[in-house]
Automatic annotation (TrEMBL):
Species this protein is from: Sphingobium naphthae
Taxonomic placement: Bacteria, Pseudomonadati, Pseudomonadota, Alphaproteobacteria, Sphingomonadales
InterPro entries assigned: P-loop_NTPase, T6A_TsaE
SUPFAM superfamilies with a match to the protein in the record: P-loop containing nucleoside triphosphate hydrolases
Intracellular or extracellular location(s): Cytoplasm
Protein name per UniProt: tRNA threonylcarbamoyladenosine biosynthesis protein TsaE
Keywords: ATP-binding, Cytoplasm, Magnesium, Metal-binding, Nucleotide-binding, tRNA processing
Major place of residence: cytoplasm
Entries under PANTHER family matching the protein: TRNA THREONYLCARBAMOYLADENOSINE BIOSYNTHESIS PROTEIN TSAE
Classification via NCBIfam families: T6A_YjeE
Pfam families to which the protein is assigned, alphabetical: TsaE
Length: 152
């Protein structure tokens, strides 16, 4: 399957995509969000969290690095991670991110900071900013997501 490409004209479209992905998410999933500053990674994450029942604004975890959301705040436990401030893949080992997969979803911004330690079953979403301000999302869909991606 070729990597699916979606053009998202505005913030509302990015939020909607996050909501649609949330409907397919399961415990043990990893969703890796790649793209430059301001590309829309946190916006997509907010749509996902909203669809899982989070009320109010989800803060960017840039400073906290790890922001957990648990039941009853959300219907599926989510750990939202922003690795932007980490310089070295060794620093990510201290976070023990794999522990969060046992009972929830792991949502990672700046997954490149993990080096080659990203889980092979991760749904990798790369967002680029187009000249007109719209976004283009390219999905690297692993086997674990093949059937679910067609529902998004």
């Amino acid at each position: 399957m070729a990597d699916p490409v979606l053009d998202l004209p505005d913030e509302a479209a990015m939020l909607d995509l996050g909501r649609r992905i949330a409907r397919q998410a399961r415990i043990g999933d990893v969703i890796a969000l790649e793209g430059g500053l301001g590309a829309g990674k946190t916006t997509l994450a907010r749509g996902l969290l909203e669809a899982l029942g989070l009320e109010g604004e989800a803060p960017s975890p840039s400073f906290a690095i790890v922001q957990p959301y648990d039941v009853p705040e959300v219907s599926l436990p989510v750990t939202h991670v922003d690795l932007y401030r980490l310089d070295d893949a060794d620093e990510t080992q201290e976070l023990a991110l794999g522990d969060y997969l046992m009972d929830g979803l792991l949502l990672i911004e700046w997954p490149d900071r993990l080096g080659d330690a990203l889980w092979p079953h991760s749904l990798r979403l790369t967002i680029e900013i187009l000249e007109d301000g719209a976004r283009r999302l390219t999905a690297d869909v692993p086997e674990a997501w093949t059937d679910r991606w067609s529902q998004i």
